[in-house]
Amino acid sequence: MPKGNKIKGPKRPEKFTKFSECLTWLKKSVYIIVRGRQKKIDESDAINWITLGSAFVAAPKRMLTAAHVLNDPLKGDLMKHQDGDKYYLLRHDDDNNWHYRIFEPKLDNDIFIYPEIDLGIIYLDEKFYHDENKIYVNETDFIRISKDFLPIGSEIGVLGYPLSKLEFKNHDLSQPLIGNILLRADQGVVNCRYKTTEKTSIYEFTLAFNPGNSGGPIFDLRTGRLISIVKGYRAHLINLKENIIPEKVNKQLKEYKEKSYIESLHAIYSYGFATPTFLDRLRQHKIMT
């Protein structure tokens, strides 16, 4: 049995000068999160696995994601947590380092959901970090959290597993097809910050989110500290018009028979709650002091 899982290594920098340098440290902590649920296939028991989004280690034995990743009633029963659900956490980076853990959490015991601030908290067990013979994850590898607001114009980054789907070789859970699980990064700036209530604040960002980014970390490029969690995006309609299709073009169309089409232009803003919104909940779960 390993005596501990705090491996001595290079000291984590307090400041970063390059985006790639920041990612070298943070990518160790970001995972895809997939839910497995029992179902019947040809009268036999099977597990249906659904990719939910991204998550990240934010303190020893604590992982964060978005509440709607774990439980999204608006999308039906399939996207709501149920007793007996299994979760598959997997990371796979561009250096081909990878690690996974399967477990069966209980609501309000191992996972906690706060939909009003779109925060999900997952408790990690010892087996996430090591088994009897090998250490998989160092407990000191986690994304630090900022207690402060970041000014508009600050450069930020995002990490996650958008557009990924977890599958298995020969349906064997110990053989995930990790080549399909790709960690993706992007960078942008904070373009807006505002309050929605006395205790909740929202950031808007210039970077785009895709399905699967939800729950991933948004961080200050200068310090590598978490400043928000991917929630989603808003599309504001700013122009709508009808365009007439020229008769010559219309004759060339085989299926589309209308004489016009609607053109719309939207302003898209990616957004997420600012970390000061989470502080009370994070302290409650001993993620911050």
Task: Summarize the model shown.
The chain has 289 residues and is mainly beta. Helices cover 10% and strands 39% of the residues.
Helix-strand layout with pairing:
Layout: H1 19-26, E1 30-41, E2 44-59, E3 62-65, H2 67-70, E4 86-92, E5 98-103, E6 111-114, E7 119-123, H3 126-129, E8 155-160, E9 184-195, E10 201-205, E11 217-220, E12 226-229, E13 232-244, H4 247-252, E14 260-273, H5 279-284
Number of strands: 14
List the total number of helices: 5
Distance between the termini: 30 Å
Radius of gyration: 21 Å
User: Which regions contain 5 or more consecutive residues with pLDDT less than 50?
Assistant: none
Molecular structure report:
- This protein has 289 residues and is mostly beta strands.
- The protein is 10% helix and 39% strand.
- Strands 5-4-1-2-3-7-6 form a seven-stranded antiparallel beta sheet. Strands 12-11-8-9-10-14-13 form a seven-stranded antiparallel beta sheet.
- A hairpin with a 5-residue loop joins strand 9 and strand 10 (201-205).
- The longest helix has 8 residues, at 19-26.
